Amino acid sequence: MTVAPETLTIWLRAAGERSRLRLLALCSEDALSVTDLARAIGQSEPRVSRHLKVLTAAGLVERQRQGQWVQYRATRVGEPASFVQGLLGQLDRHDAQLARDRNAARSAAPSVLAPSRLGRALAALLAAPSGTRQGRALIAGLTHPEVLGAVAAASAACVALAAGRRGAQAARSLADEQGIACRVLETATAALGEGDAVRATAPFDLIVLDRAAARDGALVRTLEVARTVLVPQGRLWLFEAYEALDGGDRRVVEHPLARIRRVLREAGFECERLSPVESDGEHVLAVSARVAGAAVRQGAA
Q1: Residue ranges per structural domain of the chain
Q2: CB of 201 within 8 A of CB of 159?
Q3: 116/119 Cα distance (integer angstroms)
Q4: I need a surface site. Which of 3, 84, 252, 295 has the fewest CB within 10 A?
Q5: Contact between residue 158 and residue 151 where contact means Cβ atoms under 8 Å apart
Q6: What is the pLDDT of residues 22-75, one digit of tens each?
């Protein structure tokens, strides 16, 4: 890639301020509103809006309108996208500040569920054979609207857990607009807790964790809860970003694939399928698992 010196200078000035670099890193991972971004980096919304205006004017960030909401995402086409990818590729993804920003952004309830090619790819993995449906399904995380629709279409009854009031409102609005038959319950966090499972009236034949298990640092506990509320022949699907599965400890070298296999085994699951899915600049691991042979749901009849 070669660009004019004037263009490169504009890009460098826009991205060369620390707060804007933090925002650019967040916008490269997901489409986020001003409110979400302000909460993630701990600054006021007016200040974040000014930073986003600079990044947008430079062509490094795009504005996306979803209904009454506006979200921001790093540009994904052309020379500006190549510049952003190259710049962020130099960042240490284990940097403490950037890690805190990512965790804060992931724990924030989304203002709107934005469709994406990645969501369509994940939904395709859940599609049931024509004319068939599973029993009761539970979905936690609600990151991709296509996944919510696929789970509801593939099950006789669907319950969705959404973190926070805004997350629940976004999910209910989506369900109403698209005619998705799924009951939405508001929860404190995205992770699946025992109390949430009880409220959702377990047991379930299918559980889908749509970037919910690792975002709150509760992967092991989330899987343990999921195992206890799945029927003996039930299936678990886990969708999570590669970087969220690397353990977060630079002193311990464990590949995400090895880690997820180990954690599933320790939680009482047998891994059936590991499918790397890459789209929209995101690298997600899709995992299908079943309750291990002897690890049937405790308390079942």
Answers
A1: 5-107, 117-291
A2: yes
A3: 5
A4: 252
A5: yes
A6: 999 999 987 888 888 988 898 988 999 999 999 999 999 999 876 556 889 999
Q: Is pTM beyond 0.90 here?
A: no
Amino acid at 203: P
- The predicted-structure confidence for 76-128, as pLDDT tens digits, reads as follows 888 999 999 999 999 887 888 988 888 777 666 555 677 788 889 999 999 86
Pick 117-291's CATH classification: 3.40.50.150, 3.10.450.50, 3.40.50.2000, 3.30.70.100: 3.40.50.150
Helices 18-27 + 34-41 axis angle, to 10: 120
Domains 5-107 and 117-291 share a fold: no
CATH architecture of 5-107: Orthogonal Bundle (1.10)
Query: What is the pLDDT averaged over residues 225-241?
Result: 91
Find the DSSP H helices in the chain. Answer: 5-15, 18-27, 34-41, 45-57, 78-88, 96-107, 117-126, 145-153, 164-178, 194-199, 219-229, 256-266
Q: Is 56 exposed, middle or buried (0-12, 13-18, 19+ CB in 10 A)?
A: middle
* 168 close to 186: Cβ distance less than 8 angstroms: yes
